[in-house]
Amino acid sequence: TVKNGSNPNYVFYNDSIRKGLWEEKGIESKMADALKNHEFVVYYQPKVNPESGRAAGAEALVRWRMKDGTVIPPDKFIPVFEQKFMIGQLDRYVYEEVCRLQRQLMEEGLEAVPVSVNVSRLQFYDQDFISKYVEIRKKYDVPADLLEVEFTESIVFDNEELLLKTVQELKQAGFSCAIDDFGKGYSSLSLLKTLSVDVLKIDSFFFDNGDDEERDMEVVHGIIDLVHKFQIRTVAEGIENMKQVEYLKQMGCDYIQGYVFYRPMPEDEYAELLRKEQMQKEGSGYADRDKC
Ligand code: C2E
Ligand code: MG
Ligand code: MG
Ligand code: MG
């Protein structure tokens, strides 16, 4: 059954299955087995440059595809992985999948675009988090500028010092850093003063077609102008219609991520999209040359 109005990529399990799954003892070993058996699959959602209409990057989003074909969305299992302190393993698995794909695309001669991975705030407490990521990147020989790390500002409430230190180290290791879900919850503008991130992802909360769209867009405009002063690029998340795209383009929003362009898609489809876009680019290049 597909839940109304949600991503059709998900085949939805019903509540009784979920209850059974989460309440059962031994969920930890189930999760560990699922990691070992590659039941987690990584989907890719392009971030589109509104000027060119092309994929300028992508976000890696994990799904749990169980043996029986049931696909569980991340919101349902990420919190469980956090609770059991297994989120580091899962995040690293996703990240390694991304490195593997980036290497594969490079081998194919495709121009890979940066892919971002989500990193749980709990990983910031792992002393070895960054060195593990660097090691994996080196194993696949992927340049750091093809990889980006997304995290939410919620970390700041635990430990602002830790956040600043970790971001600094990530930057030193060559990763670009993005604040995810900005504007949802207690977004702290003072954070922008101290934190040297590369990208700010503006939460879909502003684009939910609420009762005052004009006002939402004014707020978004203000955020974009403000962070551009700090050379921070902006991604608008959860964009579902062309009217919003037009607004955002006028405001100079750098990238748009939303169903209006693409839903998260399996790896093969994503690679195919890059091939298609790059063939078109080469194609037009030849056409130009013919004219000379
Ligand atoms: P997020 O990082 O903010 O990712 C964006 C979410 O918005 C994704 O949901 C994406 O599918 C959805 N989305 C994108 N465009 C649209 C749109 O136009 N309309 C609507 N309604 N939704 C849109 P998804 O894939 O279900 O992921 C949910 C959250 O789960 C993510 O939010 C992220 O916080 C977390 N997550 C996903 N993968 C990972 C992972 O590998 N590690 C960790 N720690 N968290 C992850
Ligand atoms: Mg994200
Ligand atoms: Mg987000
Ligand atoms: Mg979100």
Automatic annotation (TrEMBL):
EAL domain span: 24-278
Domain of life: Bacteria
Annotated signal sequence range: none
The protein, known as: Diguanylate cyclase (GGDEF)-like protein
Organism: Cuneatibacter caecimuris
